[in-house]
Amino acid sequence: FANKVHLANPQEISNTLWAVAKAGQQLPTGQLQRLMLAFANKLHLASPQGIANTLWAVSTMRQKLPTRQLMRLEQAFVDVLDEAAPQEVANTVWACAKQRYLPQQLLSAPPFVSKLAAAQPQELANIAWALAQLGHRDEQIVSFVTEQAQHWDISGIGRSSENACKAQE
Question: What is the tens place of the pLDDT at every residue in 138-161?
């Protein structure tokens, strides 16, 4: 694959990085750079999922991307934000936090708040965690997450914990 990476489409590159990260492995720096260069060269063809998964994979592998590359990936994601699922938004913000990069363009993009409105509690929690890790406090996002949390059904949480404890007895 490494010799033919220039022939791969963004989804294939993203899937490769995702698989390596999911397996708990890392890539040698040179190999990661080649894959990221090939991905960047075809970034205009990448889907929101491809961009989000690529960022997630690199961050999960604990490999650092240069700020310039993060800025390009963020801009590409903002360009397709209308098509992104809330999970892809949450994964992108989480990955940026792991990279110690504040995705300001993403956070200020008009569709960002509408993506929050469609997000599941776990996705909102991941976004809140990521912003806290970056030391970023956005009153609009905090208010929205707080408002949404008041409507979450947490009735099963205690029972799940009780059942887990009983199962261990």
Answer: 888 878 888 877 777 665 544 443
- Cα–chain-centroid distance for residue 91? 2
Predicted TM-score of the model (pTM):
0.84
Calpha distance 92→150 (Å, rounded) = 25
Q: Hunting for tokens 């404890």 — which residue is that?
A: 165
| Other beta carbons less than 10 A from residue 45's beta carbon | 12
| Among 77, 101, 72, residue whose Cα is nearest residue 89 | 77
47, containing H or E segment: none
- Reference 92, options 108, 80, 75, 74; nearest CA is 74
Q: Which residue has the tokens 């040698």?
A: 28
Alpha-carbon 164 to chain mean position: 30
Q: Is there a contact between 113 and 144 (Cβ–Cβ < 8 Å)? A: yes
Q: Give SS3 for 103.
A: coil
Please write down the HEC assignment for all residues of 151-169.
Answer: CCCCHHHHHHHHHHHHHHC
Strand, helix or coil for residue 22: helix
